[in-house]
Every structure is written in structure tokens, then in C-alpha cells.
Amino acid sequence: ISICRDLPNIEVITFSVNGISDLEPLHQCQNLSELYLRKNNIASLDELFYLKTLPRLRVLWLAENPCCGPDPHRYRMTVLRNLPSLQKLDNQAVTEEELSQALVDGVEITAPPARRSVENGWSECTASSAAGSTAEPDSELLTCSLDGTNKTQEELDMKLVPRDKYSCFSPQETDCSCKKSNNVLDAILLLMRELDAEGLEIIQQTVARRLQAFQKKELQEE
To answer: Rounded distance, CA 121 to CA 19, Å?
Structure first.
């Protein structure tokens, strides 16, 4: 998520199910109002230190991360003590009573978390490979990516895309453009969760026009 350092004006970020563990790149996103981080690898609530400087943050979804721990009350109180401007946490509205209770039951975070030598997600895989450790072959990484895409499609009640439709998922074709294409697909499917009926209709119309353009181009080439 290092790209966020160059996006100071971004307002909504959806990074759910992405293996993220480090929130430091977000601390410069001063216009951020909604942040979705469900099902990542955020191990410590100390990462909230980087969100305390975001004056417009009103919606945060942090559930299903290791940092939530075994005590839901303590977790919620700690988040609200450090981010008292939140209006919604984990898809549940924040009440004035909770904010008052958070001053008693929550833990104040005053310092950033201790950093490991490698960062999260793909960076960690890259570091392991560079150190000569055993890493997953590119074809296996791409298969995992496809599995994640299919899970997202299931949540969206969409028809799963057969593996044979992904021509780039053969062991011989693991180039960067292929990875980029499937990463874009994953991002689009995740973002679609945040759209209402009107937004989905716009997406449907846009996709239909794009498909017609591709079909017209194919006919011209034939």
C-alpha cells in the first residue's frame, strides 16, 4: 500500500483481504474518510497510531484481523479511544456512550509499532526470495490470486470464472502484465462491494459497451 504515500487527497480506500500488516503509508492521506481493512494481517492495534493523524476519518472496518484479539469489547474500546471521530466501526454505528466508555476501558496508543525487517504481503514474499528462502513458484502465487478472486465473486453472488478462461494462468505464462491484469480484477471485484444498486447499474452498462467494442473490433480484424 506504499502508493498511498502519493495519494494525499484520496477519500475512500478499500484494502480488504490483501495481506496488509503495515498502515504507515496511510498517515499522509489527510482527506481519507472511509477505510476498509477487513481480513488482513494487522497484528497490533499500535498500527492505529498512523490513523490518529487523519482528521476526516469517519468509517473504519478492521474486523477479522489478528489485532482484534479474543476480547471484542477491549478491541472496540481501544479503537474508539484512539479514533474518537469515528461514526462507524466494523459496520456498526458508534454511540456517545461507547466513546465515553472508551476513555475508561480503551488503551491509548502513543507510539508506532515496532517494525520487522520486511513489510507485508508481496514485499515479504520478495524479501524471502531475495534471501534465498523457499518461495512459492509464480504459478502457485497466481493460483492463490485466482482463488481469492473466486471467493470475492462468491461473496458478490457472481458466477465463478472457469480457470480455463484465464489464459495467463499456465505455468509458462507468469509475466508481469498477467499479474497486473489479475490484480486489477481483484481490486475491481473488491470495490464493487461498496457500490449501491445505482452504481452497479452504471458498471453493468459500462461493461456492456466495452464488450460490444471488443466484439466489433474482433469482427473487423476477421
So the answer is: 5
**Is the Cβ–Cβ distance between 79 and 62 less than 8 Å?**
yes
Structural domain boundaries of the chain? Answer: 2-105, 179-219
Find the mean pLDDT for residues 206-217.
80
- In order, the DSSP letters of 133-162 are -----HHHHHHHHHHHHHHHHHHTTPPPPP
- Using DSSP, state whether 14 is helix, strand or coil: strand
pLDDT of amino acid 24? 94
| Fold of the 2-105 domain | 3.80.10
Give dist(CA 85, CA 60) in Å, integer.
11
Q: List, for residues 138-150, the tens digit of each pLDDT value.
A: 444 444 444 555 5
Give the separation between CA 131 and CA 53, rounded to whole angstroms: 35
Q: How crowded is residue 19: how many other Cβ atoms within 10 Å of its Cβ?
A: 15
pLDDT tens digit string along 85-115? 999 999 999 999 999 999 999 999 999 988 6
